[in-house]
């Protein structure tokens, strides 16, 4: 592996964030930006609009590359990412630790751990679950209907803009892999928290084979979300088919105004995940400890930065039992927080809201402090703020039926205990809009190839094209 390093800081002292354009590393400090969470300055090159757009008249580079070869390349990429000597990954983690809220050790684990997605069996399963006939990615598949009419159908390589999130570096690896599997021409808009991981992965690929069609299909740049000088140029159907958008409401709203015929949105909207814990948790001290431990595991997924991380725990209990549960839950969240090395205090607005709750003893109880080392708030209704940074809101209910009233289309994952009651609630949760129910403690891992945010994403990414060829002779 070639040990190529670019300077970690620009001449002005800002963290340097180079671009990657179809196999070429683009460096420069033309534009200064500030990271979303920490307000750290980083510098990027100027975007060359003509270089980030792949002309419609050119066939996508990956179109006629067999899917099996694409998977081979992705698997080798995964091995390179996990290599401790990979200079691009190490440089990425070094720079991102200056702009991201998560500690360096967590970021290192996230970036290298994300390579697990680049597993041969996993990638093959994802394709098979998304496409009834995966041959459509490689060829025009012949069909004939009951009237005798013949046709050919292909999942044609799309042109995609990926608006990446800042909370999980691993999404970059997943997005690159998915873009390659559907043979897309890809433009990745990186986030201000992480304008590094995507480039590091693509540089790793280019180090393997700078002329590979996957490398030539990938571009990664940064601009401030909502910047009309960039978005009104790029967000057009003559250049791209779809925007694959992760992130908060502002990120999605920036995109919506550009949508129209021929230019669609595949949205991984902001989501909130919850836990539902039944009375069975209080059957013994052992079951209570187990339920508290499993709940803490779900709260602390990616230090509560992930969409699947639980924020509201609906607990079937009276006040006395609820307080017993909260005490144990707080101890376990605090333990996991200490082990993570992440002790950021809560932001000022959230601290003030929780300090106010502490004075309302009749309605709320609070375990812990607002120092970022773990906090649990017990209430009879969900708090009106968004629990973040290792903060859990335990909502006491008389029946878990009441918890379903708080589920809606923004509810992604529901961690459930006891496990044998899950099937009693799954239809009701789906009707309310929830997208996933799992055993409590298993919010993080997911079944390979399952729907994500209530859809099969790859099936939606591609441009479905039909070639109709008349009626077969009778």
TrEMBL record:
Superkingdom assignment: Bacteria
Where are its TM segments located? none
Its EC number is 1.2.1.50
Q: Pfam families per the record?
A: LuxC
Say if the entry is tagged with keyword NADP: yes
Q: Does DNA-binding count among this protein's keywords?
A: no
Reaction equation(s) it catalyzes: a long-chain fatty aldehyde + NADP(+) + CoA = a long-chain fatty acyl-CoA + NADPH + H(+)
Keywords per UniProt:
NADP, Oxidoreductase
Q: Which InterPro entries match?
A: Ald_DH/histidinol_DH, CoA_reduct_LuxC
Q: What class of enzyme is it?
A: oxidoreductase
Query: What SUPFAM superfamilies does this protein map onto?
Result: ALDH-like
Recorded family membership: Belongs to the LuxC family.
**In its UniProt entry, what is this protein called?**
Acyl-CoA reductase
């Amino acid at each position: 592996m070639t040990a190529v390093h670019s300077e970690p800081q620009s001449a002005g002292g800002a963290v340097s964030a180079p671009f990657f354009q179809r196999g070429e590393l683009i460096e420069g400090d033309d534009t200064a930006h500030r990271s979303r969470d920490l307000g750290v300055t980083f510098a990027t090159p100027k975007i060359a609009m003509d270089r980030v757009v792949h002309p419609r008249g050119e066939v996508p580079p990956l179109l006629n590359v067999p899917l099996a070869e694409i998977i081979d390349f992705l698997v080798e990429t995964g091995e390179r990412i996990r290599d401790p000597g990979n200079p691009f990954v190490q440089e990425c983690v070094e720079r991102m630790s200056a702009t991201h809220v998560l500690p360096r050790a967590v970021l290192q684990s996230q970036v290298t751990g994300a390579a697990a997605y680049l597993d041969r069996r996993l990638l093959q399963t994802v394709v098979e679950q998304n496409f009834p006939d995966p041959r459509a990615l490689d060829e025009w598949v012949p069909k004939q209907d009951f009237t005798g009419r013949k046709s050919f159908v292909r999942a044609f390589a799309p042109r995609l803009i990926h608006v990446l999130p800042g909370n999980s570096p691993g999404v970059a690896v997943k997005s690159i892999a998915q873009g390659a599997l559907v043979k897309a021409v890809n433009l990745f808009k990186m986030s201000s928290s992480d304008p590094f991981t995507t480039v590091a992965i693509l540089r790793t690929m280019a180090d393997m084979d700078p002329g590979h069609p996957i490398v030539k299909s990938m571009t990664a740049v940064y601009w401030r979300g909502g910047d009309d000088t960039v978005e009104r140029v790029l967000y057009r159907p003559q250049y791209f088919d779809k925007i694959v958008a992760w992130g908060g409401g502002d990120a999605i709203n920036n995109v919506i105004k550009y949508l129209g015929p021929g230019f669609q949105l595949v949205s991984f909207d902001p989501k909130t995940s919850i836990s539902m814990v039944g009375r069975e948790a209080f059957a013994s001290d052992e079951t209570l400890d187990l339920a508290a431990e499993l709940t803490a595991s779900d709260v602390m997924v990616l230090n509560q930065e992930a969409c699947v991380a639980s924020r509201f725990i609906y607990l079937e209990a009276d006040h006395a039992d609820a307080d017993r549960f909260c005490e144990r839950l707080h101890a376990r969240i605090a333990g996991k927080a200490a082990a993570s090395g992440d002790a950021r205090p809560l932001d000022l607005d959230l601290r003030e809201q929780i300090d106010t709750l502490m004075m309302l003893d009749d309605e709320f109880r609070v375990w812990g402090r607002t120092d970022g080392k773990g906090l649990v708030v017990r209430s009879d209704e969900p708090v009106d703020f968004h629990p973040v940074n290792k903060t859990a809101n335990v909502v006491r209910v008389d029946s878990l039926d009441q918890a379903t009233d708080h589920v809606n289309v923004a509810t992604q994952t529901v961690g459930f205990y006891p496990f044998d009651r899950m099937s009693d609630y799954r239809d009701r949760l789906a009707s309310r809009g929830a997208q996933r129910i799992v055993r409590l403690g298993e919010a993080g891992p997911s079944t390979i190839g399952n729907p994500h945010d209530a859809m099969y994403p790859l099936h939606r990414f591609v441009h479905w094209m039909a070639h109709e060829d008349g009626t077969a002779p009778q």
